[in-house]
Design a protein that fits this description.
With about 500 residues, the protein is mainly beta. About 15% of the residues lie in helices and about 40% in strands. The chain contains five helices and 28 strands. The strands form four sheets. Strands 4, 6, 8, 10, 11, 12, 13, 14, 15, 16, 17, 18 and 19 form a 13-stranded mixed β-sheet that branches. It is globular. The N and C termini lie far apart (about 50 Å).
């Protein structure tokens, strides 16, 4: 018999289980102990496969401890990419690139092994210096003197004219929109020539900066959700506030997965994305600074520094081409001299997308499943398809409780076909009803639907580092929540659809 024609073709990515969001570029950071290893396993044959099982065989780091789980699919359509996830403990994970082995088996075939790399970083916080440090095999990035727009006093209110019923977001969960910071890169080891080795030989240095910013926010959210002691570093760091303040909201209530923390995480991820937009996807300030300051022959680069500040004319939001007016200075410190380069420019967020299109039933009989189909378009009108997105939906019950479900374009369930650009999810109302009863709520009435999506890094292994670094994943391209600098605006949490249960 031949091997099962199912493989993990792209790099697995990290999902934080309290907020349900993907970490920047899918990188795993051991500052958060509990993460999910998520991967798309693809049917590469031209036919449906029957009785498919998929399991995670091993991880090339004994410090990463996954929870054993085997996924079963009665049938996998031709070409379908199935999203599978395993909970894992990363508390003792070592920074660097680690191999992960997956095994798939279908009727009529022998098992097939897929081996892919994951990227692991280690973020820590020094309260004495208010400095964050992100460590990878290639060196360490220190982030200090962070500046940003902080959540306003009216964070979570509906603004002028609102009734306050649909929004609640305690200030400690509010996203900080970064507007400046000092970054110091210490390569390991010191290097000769113009360019040093990229982190993981893949992303720009700015990805480590956004990891630091988002990890700081997520640990605070996790601490609120699960209690203290769930992360390995202090979250006492502060940002220097720059006007204006940030405003938005998050849904009230708590249900499976605590979705109020999901939206707080989404808001923080979108806000942290300002670093990516300001520092450019084509080449970040470190790479451009290196190009502009080639050291003399025989010199070794011992350290590099970027001091950056930017102004956002409008708040950053998912899928929108917002701009950042940035000024940054790069400094290179070598064994023989110091070099400097300064730039002032305007950058535009390139992780843009068109409007979200949703399809739901108008009315559902209790206790039939609720379902939603969503399509996400690129800015050129083309559809995102299959494994190009990690997407999920919040179903809000009539009296406020929320439920999280994953959206998939795999041709199963309510999805009409694999890779057709339609992502579908459903909610089992019978199971949901059990949780609703715990909160004294019911299934009858109008349910609201909120859809979110992040892009996935699909760069193929072996791509030259300076090319691979230009492809960044984990950025929100669609969100039901908006961030605003205008406190007079109403609550910006917007449902894309509604379903009446009778």
């Amino acid at each position: 018999m031949s091997d099962t024609p199912m493989q993990v073709l792209t790099r697995p990515f990290a999902i934080e289980p309290v907020t349900n969001i993907m970490l920047p570029d899918g990188v795993f950071d051991n500052a958060i102990y509990g993460l999910r290893i998520a991967a798309h396993v693809t049917n590469r044959s031209g036919n449906a496969l029957n009785n498919v099982t998929v399991y995670l065989e091993s991880v090339g780091d004994p410090g990463i401890v996954p929870v054993a789980r085997t996924f079963f699919f009665a049938s996998v359509p031709a070409g379908a990419a199935m999203l599978v996830m395993w909970n894992a403990d990363f508390q003792h994970a070592a920074p660097g690139k680690r191999l992960v082995s997956f095994v798939a088996k279908a009727d009529g075939y022998t098992p097939r092994r897929s081996i892919q790399q994951i990227f692991v970083s280690q973020t820590r916080f020094d309260s004495a210096t208010n400095t964050y440090t992100c460590t990878v095999e290639e060196g360490t990035l220190e982030l200090s003197k962070p500046q940003g727009h902080l959540p306003g006093k009216r964070w979570g209110s509906t603004g002028a004219g609102g009734d306050g019923k649909d929004c609640r977001c305690p200030p400690q969960w509010g996203p900080i929109v970064p507007t400046g910071m000092t970054l110091v890169w210490t390569p390991n080891p010191a290097y000769a020539g113009t360019h040093g080795e990229l982190p993981f030989s893949d992303p720009w240095w700015k990805i480590l900066a956004i990891i630091i910013a988002l990890i700081a926010a997520l640990v605070a959210i996790i601490a609120a959700a699960l209690g203290s002691g769930k992360a390995s570093f202090s979250v006492g760091g502060t940002f220097e506030e720059t006007d204006p303040s940030v405003h938005c909201c998050t849904p009230k209530g708590a249900a499976s997965g605590k979705p109020e923390f999901t939206v707080a995480g989404v808001a923080s991820a979108i806000a942290s994305g300002a670093i990516v937009a300001a520092c450019s996807d084509l080449a970040d300030p470190f790479w451009r600074g290196q190009e502009a300051t080639p050291p003399a022959a025989g010199e070794l680069t011992l350290g590099e520094r970027v001091v950056a500040q930017w102004v956002l004319p409008e708040a950053p939001n998912a899928g929108q081409p917002y701009t950042a007016d940035i000024r940054w200075q790069y400094d290179r410190f070598t064994t023989g001299a110091s070099y400097h380069h300064t730039v002032s420019e305007t950058q535009v967020n390139v992780h843009v997308a068109g409007p979200v299109e949703t399809d739901t039933p108008d009315v559902v009989q209790a206790f039939e499943p609720l379902w939603v189909r969503a399509s996400f378009r690129r800015d050129n009108g083309d559809l995102f398809r299959g494994n190009e997105l990690y997407a999920f939906v919040l179903f809000q019950a009539p009296q406020g409780l929320y439920f999280v479900e994953t959206l998939s374009d795999d041709g199963l369930g309510y999805d009409p076909g694999a890779n057709d650009g339609v992502y579908a999810a459903s909610l089992n109302l019978k199971l949901a009803y059990r949780q609703l009863l715990q909160y004294g709520q019911d299934v009858y009435g109008s349910w609201r639907v909120f859809v979110f999506a992040q892009d996935v890094n699909l760069t193929k292994p072996g791509t030259p580092p300076e090319i691979a670094a230009q492809h960044i994943g984990g950025m929100f391209i669609a969100s039901a929540i908006e961030i605003t600098f205008d406190d007079s605006l109403p609550c910006p949490l917007k449902a894309q659809a509604s379903i009446v249960v009778v």
